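Saturday, quiet lab. Running sequence design on the structure tokens for the scaffold JK sent over.
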């Protein structure tokens, strides 16, 4: 996603319009916690993803991990971008940790082992540009729409999905009166309603609680749950919160 707004002249090189602040040039309104708010009313979050060493996996574990990741990302309904930032390895924290450990040790043998570890680490990175990759997940949403606009969009999509079904499209409903009701109160009720009428099929890992946190999984043996089977129960539980 390009954060820079238009307003750059290419004549005689690149120049920024006079009296324009850096934030205006970069299209940044403010940054709060993990969220960046742009001037064109986008809300963006950057989430660092810690890598895992797949070389330690068996072939079966690697296949399971690949399949589960494919399902997770293919079921994602919101836009996202994955990007990588290469950085030079910083050993400062590791060296400090080893120095602190050395101070706590009493026997000479253990102290010598830690000292050699520190020396070996310094020698490994000395005069070398060792690069490690940092992985980030970028997600964003248009914040310009108010509640009414979002509700109207959900209603239009619900109408399109219920053309061949005799479902009543409702915003608010009693959790005990869900028969033939398509609930558009928010995104969660909308997705669960889609699952009830089987317009989409959704799989969720048994250890994930995106939609299935309110059901009993103690006797389930499969790695994945077909959420459609529990959609009505999940919708009822959600509305009763």
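Result came back. Writing it out in full:
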């Amino acid at each position: 996603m390009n954060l820079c707004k238009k307003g750059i002249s290419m004549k005689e090189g690149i120049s920024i319009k006079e009296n324009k602040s850096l934030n205006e040039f970069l299209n940044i309104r403010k940054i709060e916690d993990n969220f960046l708010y742009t001037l064109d009313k986008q809300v963006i979050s950057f989430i660092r993803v810690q890598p895992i060493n797949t070389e330690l996996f068996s072939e079966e574990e690697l296949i399971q991990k690949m399949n589960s990741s494919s399902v997770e990302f293919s079921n994602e309904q919101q836009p996202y971008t994955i990007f990588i930032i290469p950085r030079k390895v910083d050993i400062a924290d590791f060296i400090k940790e080893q120095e602190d450990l050395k101070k706590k040790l009493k026997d000479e043998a253990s102290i010598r082992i830690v000292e050699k570890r520190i020396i070996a680490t310094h020698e490994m990175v000395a005069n070398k540009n060792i690069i490690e990759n940092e992985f980030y997940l970028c997600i964003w949403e248009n914040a310009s729409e108010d509640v009414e606009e979002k509700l109207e969009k959900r209603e239009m999509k619900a109408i399109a999905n219920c053309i061949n079904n005799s479902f009543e499209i409702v915003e608010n409903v009693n959790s005990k009166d869900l028969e033939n009701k398509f609930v558009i109160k928010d995104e969660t009720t909308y997705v669960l309603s889609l699952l009830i009428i089987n317009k989409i099929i959704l799989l969720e890992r048994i250890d994930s609680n995106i939609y299935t946190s309110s059901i009993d999984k103690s006797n389930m043996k499969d790695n994945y749950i077909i959420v459609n089977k529990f959609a009505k129960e999940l919708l009822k539980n959600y509305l009763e919160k």
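Notes for JK: Residues 4-16 have pLDDT under 50 and may be disordered. The CA atoms of residues 146 and 152 lie 10 Å apart. Ask whether to fix the surface positions before the next round.
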